[in-house]
């Protein structure tokens, strides 16, 4: 990660050593808050000296800005990366309401903080997408055209994994054909086994292992969810047998041949002195597109998700707008509206009869416009 960071000119990198965080507290005078990963140890601060690495940060004109974000951030975004053969990685992005700069906080091989400061969220996105996103290959057919219950996504990803599993088993057995049918009982048992495995080589466990807080949501798989799989082309179910559909085969092949890893991230803020989730997102990247899944916060009716298949530039534009909405809500002194987990959508926009979204990039269509202001597609 250090080498990746230094390849770009729009990022400043600061390394710290053991005990330096205590001196960051001491020198800045900050007390810390619940969003910070750090706590002050006054005894250690009084009996230790800051490292030479700390002096570089202390003498930087960015010291106050970085200290505020690391110790008392207004917004924290947790990032988890992995899936397939991708290297596993965890880091945080920290922001303040009154300062546009962004700090990404990693832990280096020695277990000490590595801080990357970017001029603003746009600069951070350019760096982040160059590492974690795919340029994409143009138009990608909509998979989930509407906001749906999360159980539908769970079942669909399970279908993709079943195809991948059957494909690999056929190779091991030297068979040319792929088995596309299994009993409903086996379908459910395999789903439970997949979730319990926590194996990030498979798409379904990766969704829950990487997306912060998602496994705490209540799920209840119903026959209606399996019926929706048929409508979406993932599978058909009849007489106790589930048969994979064309969509499962196409996306299964896509993930077999070009899955570049996944990222789960969650934005949280302090609201009324409580840490609250404002948005929860899962990104599965392939050579064809960036599959972006955004989740509503838990409600009595369960959880819903929205899917967008985006090119690299479309993904950057979507996440730029996502951050603008979150920061606008925080600056207004009130929590983001319920359903803020849907990128580019507030609850009214997600409900039937609300605002429409671009069929090309998924961005919100502004009233009165004859084209999408994000990608230029005519309406």
Model description:
- Helix content is 37%, strand content 22%.
- By secondary structure, the protein is α+β, with helices and mostly antiparallel strands.
- It has two domains: 2-132, no CATH class; 148-350, no CATH class.
- The strands form two sheets. A ten-stranded antiparallel β-sheet has the order 1-5-4-3-2-10-11-12-13-6, with helices on both faces. A three-stranded antiparallel β-sheet has the order 7-9-8.
- A hairpin with a 6-residue loop joins β3 (89-95) and β4 (102-107).
- α7 (150-172) packs across α10.
- It is elongated.
Q: Which residue ranges are poorly predicted, with pLDDT under 50 across at least 5 consecutive positions?
A: 2-8, 337-355
**Helix/strand order:** HEHHHHEEEEHEHEHHHEEHEEEEHH
Question: How many runs of DSSP E, i.e. beta strands?
Answer: 13
**Beta-strand residue fraction:** 15-25%
Task: Tell me the count of domains.
Answer: 2
How do the strands of the widest beta sheet line up side by side? 1-5-4-3-2-10-11-12-13-6
Helix content: 25-40%
Question: How would you classify the quaternary structure?
Answer: single chain
Number of helices: 13
Mean residue pLDDT: 86
Shape: elongated
């Amino acid at each position: 990660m250090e080498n990746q960071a230094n390849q770009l000119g729009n990022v400043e990198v600061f390394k710290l050593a053991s005990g330096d965080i205590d001196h960051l507290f001491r020198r800045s005078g900050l007390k810390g808050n619940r969003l910070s990963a750090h706590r002050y140890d006054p005894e250690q601060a009084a009996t230790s000296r800051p490292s030479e690495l700390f002096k570089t940060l202390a003498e930087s004109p960015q010291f106050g800005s970085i200290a505020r974000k690391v110790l008392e951030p207004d917004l924290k975004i947790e990032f988890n990366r992995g899936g397939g053969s991708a290297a596993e990685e965890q880091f945080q992005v920290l922001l303040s309401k009154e300062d546009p700069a962004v700090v990404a906080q990693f832990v280096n091989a020695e277990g000490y903080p590595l801080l990357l400061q970017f001029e603003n969220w746009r600069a951070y996105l350019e760096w982040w997408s160059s590492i974690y996103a795919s340029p994409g290959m143009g138009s990608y057919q909509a998979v989930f055209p509407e906001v749906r219950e999360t159980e539908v996504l769970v079942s669909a990803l399970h279908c993709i994994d079943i195809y991948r599993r059957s494909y690999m088993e056929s190779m091991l057995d030297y068979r040319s054909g792929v088995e596309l049918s299994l009993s409903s009982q086996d379908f459910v048992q395999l789903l439970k086994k997949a979730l319990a495995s926590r194996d990030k080589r498979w798409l379904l466990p990766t969704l829950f292992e990487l997306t912060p807080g998602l496994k705490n949501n209540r799920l209840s798989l119903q026959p209606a969810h399996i019926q929706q799989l048929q409508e979406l082309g993932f599978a058909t179910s009849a007489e106790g047998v589930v048969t994979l559909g064309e969509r499962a085969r196409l996306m299964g092949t896509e993930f077999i041949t070009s899955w570049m890893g996944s990222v789960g991230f969650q934005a949280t803020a302090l609201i009324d002195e409580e840490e609250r989730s404002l948005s929860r997102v899962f990104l599965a990247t392939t050579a064809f597109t960036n599959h972006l899944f955004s989740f509503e916060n838990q409600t009595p009716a369960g959880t819903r998700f929205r899917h967008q298949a985006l090119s690299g530039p479309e993904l950057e534009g979507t996440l730029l707008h996502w951050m603008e909405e979150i920061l606008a809500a925080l600056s207004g002194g009130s929590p983001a509206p319920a359903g803020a987990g849907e990128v580019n959508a507030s609850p009214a926009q997600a409900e039937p009869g609300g605002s429409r979204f671009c069929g090309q990039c998924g961005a919100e269509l502004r009233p009165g416009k004859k084209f999408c202001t994000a990608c230029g597609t005519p309406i």
